[in-house]
Specification:
Blueprint: H1 2-21, H2 28-34, H3 39-50, H4 54-70, H5 77-83, H6 89-100, H7 104-111
Helix pairs in contact: 1-3, 4-5
Amino acid sequence: DSKEKEAVSVIDRAKEYIDENFRKDISLDDVSREVDISPYYFSKIFKEETGENFIEYLTRVRIDKAKELLVDENVSVKEAGIQSGYSDPNYFSRIFKKQTDMTPSEYKTRYGK
């Protein structure tokens, strides 16, 4: 039971770190170092606790942020990608489409104000 509580606290700290740093180029190694456990063990408990692996979680956080930005008429698609942690606009578009079934431009057109 205390092992589980420990895992939850590590995951909470990891999520907090990801939520604060998703705009940067962060890796599983960076996060596991931040919460002071091995990358292998971190990966395992992260998946157990959240149901997603590290990359899936990071991608979801980034795409959710991108969606928020894309509805703002003053933010370009390129800028939304950059502010969401994607320096390559083509990669951003590809990942966004994979996650939402539409391109960032289509999303902006449909939901933008």
